Amino acid sequence: MIERLAIIGVGLIGGSLARALRAAGAVGEIVGCGRSLGNLERALELGVVDRITQNPAEAVREADMVFLAVPLGAMRGALAAMRDSLRPEAIVTDGGSVKCSVVEDARAVFGRVPPRLVPGHPIAGTEHSGVEASFAELYRDRRVILTPLAETDPEAVARVTAMWQTCGAEVTAMSVAHHDEVLAATSHLPHMLAFGLVDSLARMRENDEIFRYAAGGFRDFTRIASSNPVMWRDICLANREALSAMLARFGVEMTDLAESIRRSDGEHLLEIFARAKAARDRYVDQARPVHEDADRSSSQT
């Protein structure tokens, strides 16, 4: 049982965590904190939180669990603001999509990685943002990755694991570096492709006609281009090394594909398409949980 949960960033991710724990009867009081007073007041009206404040230090005071759901670029500032008000036994965890930057921010603020900090990443979300987009079932049958370090308190890891399992999530653990490499390939790269494609088409002179005749496949593929631009800017900068490597590798693949089309090399095209279809059928559809995993595409503080 979490006696007092402080959520810094009561948007889709933070709000959904609050709703899920409330529905499960697994939390006593929930304190919401964020920059947008209007969003916080709405969270209070909806019953997502019990109290609101725009001061992180006030929000975490007496909290036994703190969840950070802020853009990566705001993580260090949030940690610094709460540092002197945290209870010694308080557990701090987060929902950031890049773990190396969160660990670096914590080390910069505290002088070391606090033993009660459990870096985490719920692989769930929609392209919508704000507390009104939150819902209790968001994490059901979704995956949550925790990236504890050698100095992380095992009891803190166990409590964060139990929190996410209460929300219906499947919890796994991996190293910080491995997490960032995996997410660069499976989440960050697809977002870059969607943003890049939509931006490229939008800058074409005939863009009105192009978008008018866009079919379902285009809408499905580019849905994530409606995600929070600020958050994705921060993700790109925080995971720039792993993401740059994936973009370079993908660029080589696209060059090969373009050359095959230019040469009318139907045999090579068929080889690429068949290999891709087989891989997706084998790994994606069979590995998908009851509800298909969605990338955490937006958040609002």
TrEMBL record:
Prephenate/arogenate dehydrogenase domain location: 3-291
Keywords: Amino-acid biosynthesis, Aromatic amino acid biosynthesis, NAD, Oxidoreductase, Tyrosine biosynthesis
Annotated protein name in UniProt: prephenate dehydrogenase
GO biological process, one term: tyrosine biosynthetic process
InterPro entries, A to Z: 6-PGluconate_DH-like_C_sf, NAD(P)-bd_dom_sf, PDH_C, PDH_N, Preph/Arog_dehydrog, Prephen_DH
Pathway assigned in UniProt: Amino-acid biosynthesis; L-tyrosine biosynthesis; (4-hydroxyphenyl)pyruvate from prephenate (NAD(+) route): step 1/1
Protein EC: 1.3.1.12
Keyword Amino-acid biosynthesis: yes
Catalytic activity: prephenate + NAD(+) = 3-(4-hydroxyphenyl)pyruvate + CO2 + NADH
